[in-house]
Amino acid sequence: MNLTEEITLLTDNLHLLTKDQAWYYRVLPKNKVNGTFTFYCEDSVSLTDLSAELEILLGATIKLEPLDAIQVAKLLSKYYLKDNAAQGSAQAHMTHNPDDFLHHLISEAKSLKSSDIHIESYEHKCRVRIRIDGMMVERYQLKREDYPALINKIKIHANLDIAEKRLPQDGRINFKHGGQQFDIRVSVLPTLYGEKVVLRLLNNDATDIDLNSLGFSTFDLENYLQGAKRPNGILLISGPTGSGKTTTLYATLKLLNKETRNVMTIEDPVEYTLEGINQVQLKESIGLGFAAALRTFLRQDPDVIMIGEIRDTETANMAIRAALTGHLVLSTIHTNSAWGTVSRLTDMGIPSFLVASTLNTTVAQRLLRLLCPHCKEQKEFSDGLYPRQFKAYSKVHHHITAKGCEQCYYTGYKGRKAVYEVIPVDQELSLQIKNGNMYVNDLLNDRGIHTLAENAFQLFSSGLTSIEEIYPLLFNY
């Protein structure tokens, strides 16, 4: 078969082999018809010997179809992802014990550095997908008759009502298995063909988080630290869900966490735990929201307050009040740019003079996937690859593209890095806010402020990421 031909394996055939067996024999299940199993194998092996071994192993008639060794490696990496944690022979399908399957699934997702597990039900099938480096990958398919048992097991671990199948539910699991321990946020949503569950894997260990390694340029980091080290005011980080805002906030809290300071947080959920910081889990069901917690915080003699998100006018007003009374407030907000936080706050009903007197630093950030260092390749570059109307900051003659190998599961990418836009609000910018002037590009240029597009372009031109990754940001230059 031609190497360029696209081969898709049915997920419900993957359980014919364990992950270890597939890699050991370097075979992949094509189909199962009337008791005969057809597998793809490398074209360099002895078909007679391999089929004999597989017939003994599986107790069935085996048919082999040779493929190029590179294509076999690519398919193995795609459908039988290797992980460093679980080296057992857990099968890639739902076993009779849903608890064992759940433990295996969570352990595997954690070892692959996945952020979320999606368990979904449709009319004729159920599937499990995991999110790696921001992208969804289908891992398993489940039988519809096995699906309810798995959902109930998750609900039991999360202390949810297994009888309630009509309303959404939220819970939390403290996962302890095989030497691993971390928290999982559970969200259950009723859908047309059953309940969908999303498991958000939370990293309890904040010891490895460091501002210097997140992606700040030297200039942006200096501006950011000036705002973080001020005794009062509001420092806001904006960006879409999954852009790393919370990680940046925790790296900042680590820096501010001193014995001489009282640091308090209200979060939904508490994603990391830090010794020496008073962390509160939001519970809207009993009236403990961001605004209610902030009212109590102000009576707790705080120095630094971190709010998980400013999502409504009441929370914004309480944050402003906290900053006006001499506290440093850190929070996140959903806007497209750093300067966009100003108009977002005024749209919430905050008077511009209060925004001007409290906002000390505003930040926008995004996460970009980095090219796999093992397989990236250089190609000629054409300006036609940029969005129309975009003018490059510098001339690019060659660019690095994603290819794919075993190391990156043939995605072409491995790991992510944050890009930032940091605006320290000085007296002149504060005056512009007070006067309601939202067009400050010239002032920002005079201060050498780099936009998200500029910092993303720098990452691209240095060969760390691809044009496809930065393309969405170039519309906002």
Question: Could you characterize the architecture of this molecule?
Answer:
The chain has 477 residues and is an alpha/beta fold. 30% of the residues lie in helices and 28% in strands. The protein contains 15 helices and 18 strands. It has helices at residues 19-25, 47-58, 69-79, 98-111, 147-157, 218-228, 245-256, 290-297, 313-324, 340-347, 352-358, 427-434, 441-446, 452-461, 467-470; strands at residues 27-33, 36-42, 61-67, 114-121, 126-132, 135-142, 169-177, 180-191, 194-202, 233-238, 263-267, 278-281, 304-307, 328-333, 359-371, 377-380, 398-401, 413-424. The strands form 4 sheets. The chain has a 7-stranded mixed beta sheet with strand order 12-11-13-14-10-15-18, sandwiched between helices. The longest helix has 14 residues, at 98-111. The radius of gyration is 26 Å and the shape is globular. The protein starts with 18 loop residues before the first helix and ends in a 7-residue tail after the last helix. Mean pLDDT is 87; it is low at 84-92.
Q: Which outline best applies?
A: globular
Indicate the percent of residues in helices: 25-40%
| Alpha-carbon distance between the two ends | 45 Å
Low-confidence stretches: 84-92
Mean pLDDT over all positions = 87
**Taking strands numbered 1, 2, ... along the chain, how are they ordered across the largest sheet?**
12-11-13-14-10-15-18
User: Which structural category fits the helices and strands?
Assistant: alpha/beta
Q: Mind summarizing the main beta sheet?
A: 7 strands, mixed
Radius of gyration, in Å, reads 26 Å
What is the β-strand count?
18
Question: What percent of residues are in strands?
Answer: 25-35%
Number of helices: 15
